[in-house]
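Bug: C-alpha cell stream looks shifted between consecutive jobs. Job 1:
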Amino acid sequence: MDKAEARKVIYKVSINTMIINFLLTAAKLAAGIFGNSIALVSDAIHSASDVLSTIVVMLGAGFSNKKPDEKHPYGHEKFECIAAIVLALMLFGTAATIGFYGVKSIFCGDIVIPDKITVFAAVLSIAVKEWMYRYTKNAADKINSTSLYADAWHHRSDALSSIGSLIGVVGAMCGLPVLDPIASFVICAIIIKVAYNILRTSIAQIIDSAAPEEVEQKIREIILNCEDVRGIDMLKTRLFGSRIYVDIEVKIDKDMSFKAVHELTHVLHDDIERANTSIKHVMIHANPTG
C-alpha cells in the first residue's frame, strides 16, 4: 500500500473514531455528573483525551507521508514516532489528572453513592471502546502505522478503565462507596502502563534500534538460500519510524564477473524487500572470497 492510500486509511479511521469518541465522552460525562460517579467522570476525561490523540495521529500521518526532499532525503516517517510520543505523554497527563481527583475525593470526604444510570453508561463505554480498539488496530496492522496502533491502545485502555469504573460504581452501590475513587487509581495505573509501552516503542523507532530478531532471521534465510552466496559478513537493521533499513555484506566467489555480482545483489535486494513490506531500503555490498 502506497503512502497516499495509507494516509486515506488513517484519516478515515481517525474521523470515524473521533466522532464516536466525542459522543461517548458527552454521554459518560453527563452520566458521571448526574449519577455522582467520580470514576465515570474520570473515564470521560480519558475519552476526551482520545479525541485529542486522534487529532495528533492525523497530523502525524500528514507529515510522515510527505515525499523526500532536499533536506530530508530519507523521507519523513519519523514524524509518526513523534506523534506516538506525544500520545504517550498525553496519556501520562490524563493518568495524573485521574489520580489527583481520586486522592481528592478520598481525603476531602467527597465520596458519594453513584446512581444506577452510571452502570449503563459504563457498560456502553466498554462495548463501544472495545469495538473502536479492534477497528483501529485492524487498520494499523493493515498499513503498519505506529501512531494508529498507539491510538488503538488509547481505545483499549479506555475500555479497561471503563471496566474499572463499572467495578467502582457497582461496589459503591453495594455499600462500599470508597471503591469508586479506588477504581480511579486502577484506571490511573492502567493508563500509565499503556503510555509507558507506547513511549518505549516510539523511542526505539526514533533512535534507530535494530529490527525484531524474527525479521533479521528471515533476511538471513533469504540470503543463505542463494547458492552463489558463500556467507554473511555483516547484517545490520535499523528502525526508521515504522519502516526498516537493512545493510548487508555477503561473501561471493572472487571469480564471479561484475555483471553476475550485480545481478546477484539485485535479486537479493528485491527478494528481501518483497519478504517484508516494512522494509524501505536494502543496501548490499559483496565481498570476494575463496
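Job 2, same session, no restart:
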Amino acid sequence: MLYTLTNGTYTAQVDSLGAQLVSLKGPDGFEALWTGKPEYWREHAPVLFPIVGALRENRAKIDGQWVEMNRHGFAKRSEFALQSQGEGTLSLRLTPTEATRACYPFDFALTVTYTLTDTGYTTAFTVENTGDKPLPFVVGGHPGFNIPVGEEASFEEYVIRFEQPETQKCPVIQADSCLIDPTQTAYTLENQREIPLRHELFYNDALVFEGLRSTWVQVVHPATGKGVEMDFSQFPMLGIWSAKNDGPYVCLEPWTGCATLTTEGDDFAQKKGMQLLPQGEKKDYAFTVKLL
C-alpha cells in the first residue's frame, strides 16, 4: 500500500512493502528522491535490516545453525503494517513472519517512522527485542537522491562535502563476493572536506567510511549551493554509492554495521557492528535529510 504524507511544504510517499520512501517533493515540485529507473537501479530508499551488505555466500551461523539471508537483509522485501499516521508523519512496523524466522530465528519489532520537516525529512528506526534471548542486528538507510538537482548542471559539477576535514582509507568491496576487504584501500582522504563527484568513484561499489569526525555530509553544487545534506550523527558508518552504470543519482547510507569482512568468520552475532539487544529492550536511531 502507498501512503501519502504532507506538512504543507513537502509531500512524500511511502510504500508499505519495505517501508520504503518512494517520493519526496518540495514547493518547486522537483522530485528529490531517486525515481527507481530500472535501467540504473530499481529501488528508491530501502531499509536495511537485520544486516547491511552481504554475508559470505549469503549465509551465516546463528546458534550453531547455518541460515541464508540475501544482501541487506529481509526488511526491504517485507510487508510492514501501519502503526500510526498523522500530519506529516507515518510509522510502519514489521514483526516476525514464517519467512523471517527461517533466516532470522528471533522475536523482534522494527518500526520505521518518517517525519517531514521544514527542510526535508527524518527517518527513525526503533528496534525492539520482544523475545527471551539477546537480539543481534544491524540497521541502516539507503536513500538515493536525484543528481543534478533540478538545474542545468552535470553530475561532475557536484562535490561530496563533509562537515569537517577527514582522513580516511575506504576499504575495497570485492566485486565477486560483495565482502569488505579491510586490507585493501579503494579511496583515500587526507585531511580533506571534499571529494569531486564522478561516476568512476563507484565503479568498484560504495565508498565506506567509519569513525568520521563529521556529523553531516552533503552532495552539493558549489556554485549554486543546490543539493542534499544528511545528518548521520547517530551512525558509526557511512556508505556513499551509485551504480556503476553512470546513473544520475547518489545514495547516502548511514549504517550501524557493514558487510562481512574478509578477515572475520561467519558467526552472525560476531559480525562487525552487530548490536546485541537485551531481552525487553529497544534501541533508536535516526538520520535527517535536508534539501539545499
